[in-house]
Amino acid sequence: GAGVSQSPSNKVTEKGKDVELRCDPISGHTALYWYRQSLGQGLEFLIYFQGNSAPDKSGLPSDRFSAERTGGSVSTLTIQRTQQEDSAVYLCASSLGLASPYNEQFFGPGTRLTVL
Amino acid sequence: DAKTTQPPSMDCAEGRAANLPCNHSTISGNEYVYWYRQIHSQGPQYIIHGLKNNETNEMASLIITEDRKSSTLILPHATLRDTAVYYCIVRVISGGSYIPTFGRGTSLIVHP
User: Fold this and answer.
1) Of all residues in chain A, what percent carry a pLDDT higher than 70?
2) Which of B42, B98, B106 to mutate to test the interface with A (most CBs of A within 10 A)?
3) Across residues B19-27, what is the average pLDDT?
4) Do B91 and A55 touch (CB under 8 A)?
5) Distance from CA of A112 to the nearest CA of B (A)
6) Is the predicted pLDDT of residue A36 greater than 50, yes or no?
7) Other beta carbons less than 10 A from residue A12's beta carbon
8) Mean pLDDT in chain A?
9) From the candidates A24, A37, A105, which should be mutated to test the interface with B, based on the most B CB atoms within 10 A?
10) Secondary structure of chain A as H, E, C letters
């Protein structure tokens, strides 16, 4: 079956513009996660969804970042007024659920964002 | 904060066993240890997880010490394609749910 897909694979934008990053999780996966990975760094957790709700938004770096998920499936991460420090690979993952500690995550290929 | 400590880099000869250590001294009784790896320019890939017993699958073996404060991922016969960053993670609780938190991992280089 299809894995997690993300689009676009690459995005180059100018400082100050808004960008939208999309994630299509594996069908039937109720949990969805967004991470950010800067060059040479580990994965920075941003936000997760259980269904359509995001119980914890504290991982979002600033109020320029927002995310939504509709219909319990596709999620969109929006970055407003992009800054150069937003340049990174944005990774999405999904899993069957969250409450259990043994639900493995399946990651998408990521979106490489470059802010000029 | 990541709850695990790993060496930043290791190397291994092709065909040999690669043993990747991880310290998780503050792990609590109901937290699982997970291992993922990330090959260059790809998303992380699940390898294995365990609670307190040793585990083995087609990719690797996981050895967890009796006190659960450390573990070792073993790739029994490393190949060049195993060159990747390996992440040992312990799920932390956020909003009542388990959220995998990644550190910087170990960069494993398998050489001919």
Assistant:
1) 95
2) B98
3) 93
4) no
5) 10
6) yes
7) 12
8) 90
9) A105
10) CCCCEEECCEEEECCCCCEEEEEECCCCCCEEEEEEECCCCCCEEEEEEECCECCCCCCCCCCCEEEEECCCCCEEEEECCCCHHHCEEEEEEEECCCCCCCCCCEECCCEEEEEC
From A100, A95, A106, A92, select the one nearest A36 (Cα to Cα).
A92
B53–A contact, CB cutoff 8 A: no
Tokens representing residue A109 in the block: 């290929």
Q: What are the residues facing A86 on neighbouring strands?
A: none
Q: Can you give the three-state secondary structure of B70-90, one letter per residue?
A: EEEEEECCCCHHHCEEEEEEE
Give residue B1's pLDDT band: very low, low, confident or very high (50, 70, 90).
very low
Cα B30 from Cα B19, distance rounded (Å): 25
Nearest CA to B106 out of B68, B73, B63, B64 is that of: B73
Structure tokens belonging to residue A4: 């997690």
- A53 inside 8 A of chain B by CB: no
Instruction: Enumerate the residues of chain A whose CB falls inside 8 A of the CB of residue B45.
Output: 107
